[in-house]
Amino acid sequence: MKYLPILALTVAISACAAPSPGVSQVGTSQQPPKVVAQCIAQKWADKSQQQVVSQDTLANDMASNVYVPGQQPPDGAAAIVRPNYSGPGTWVGFHTAGSAGSDATGDIQACL
Question: Which pTM was predicted?
Answer without folding.
Answer: 0.77
